[in-house]
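Agenda item 2: iron/sulfur cluster complex prediction
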Amino acid sequence: MMGRQVGAQDQLFYSFNLDNHVPSDHLLRGIDRFLDLSELRKHLGPFYSDIGRPSIDPELLVRMLIVGYCFGIRSERRLCEEVHLNLAYRWFCCLGLQDPVPDHSTFSKNRHGRFRESGALRCLFESVLQRCMIEGLVRGEGFAADATIVKADAQRQRGVAREDAIWGNPQEASRAIREYLTALEETNDCCANFKNVSLTDPAATWTAAPGGPAFYAYSNNYLIDLQAGIIVDVEPSTVNKTAEVEATRAMIERVEDKLEMKPSRFVADTNYGSAAMLGWLVEEKHIEPHVPVWDKSNRQDGTFSTIEFVWDGQANEYRCPAGKALRCNRRRFTKPRSHVTSEGTVQYRASQLDCLSCPLKARCCPNMRCRQIARSIHEGARDEARRIATTQRYRQSRKDRKKVEILFAHLKRILKLDKLRLRGFSGAHDEFLLAATAQNLRRMAKWLLPQAGKAALAVS
Ligand code: SF4
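Presented output:
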């Protein structure tokens, strides 16, 4: 017999426990188990007045933000609706059935004001990271870094040539423009090499992606621990290799300062294999670079490549295939010189007499009087990276590197952070930090909840 739903929505009293309606294996249960906001509350204390009406609990706002970033709901308006309607979200935010959800405007005001001034999101990220360390998910043995491009909230039609940009009165400009102008004033070179600038978000980089039209974007830089793929630091930057490498150096320094953690190996792709970066890793930080060397010395025209010249460190010279010496100090100067060029290289030259009479000249330097080799001042570090690239550990590191790429794929496909909603570097910073926090929480919940669940069952 076909049944009929009998409407009984006018019942006055219910016996209802929200906790019973959230499945035991719900992701938010796992996240709730590992989330401790007491540190954040302490951190935010000085930013609230001691008198006046009580504010909306910052813990509620942060919990809502975590829900939003864990489930790809980044619109504040939609997040408020979802928290209002979804029982699991209400349970996670410690809201009763009748408790009102904060208005989206209050919510965004706090986010752009007090949270940003106080660095609350960084504090949240670090407290979650500390918990990951306590749970044994971070070993600190190896770190990997990479960057991904995330579109800015700026339409390409609002872009102008840099010299045509007119900003008007800074007091009446938007927050993103004010920030940009302040940075421009302070550093005098903020994004100075951009040819095209957005009138909506001037700090965003005009960048081209393969196979599509150019767009405005920021780079999201991750530094992860290779044990369980936990993100140990995150930093936004402009979209170019130099800025990404600088951001990675800043992250390694910050992790060392704040967490007293320095890896024994650093894993990254060729973008991080410049001589300066390898020199910094090996000579200054004493970290093994598991990074392909950025090498342009191989010749394609059939003449001898640098690799065919033998380096003699003791004598400070190269030996060419004809057995002659290439030196950097052939001429005598009254004042001793370092011979280091502005590119950070030292030029080693063969003797003109040797080369002019050499039978190998046509295969060595057919268009020059003598052969020259530019040796980087960090060549020792480059050699170390080349040596590591032949080891079994390096092959493992290449596989480990995929963990960063998986996190970026997850960021864009599951967390839906393929386009920013907030503008300016501070907006990108906030969004990347929250997304990384959400990713760490999700990973911790998924890795540890089954064990924790079993333990809880055993206790009960
Ligand atoms: S051309 Fe000069 S540098 Fe090259 S192999 Fe001959 S002697 Fe050596």
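Discussion summary: The CA atoms of residues 69 and 435 lie 6 Å apart.
Owner for follow-up: CH.
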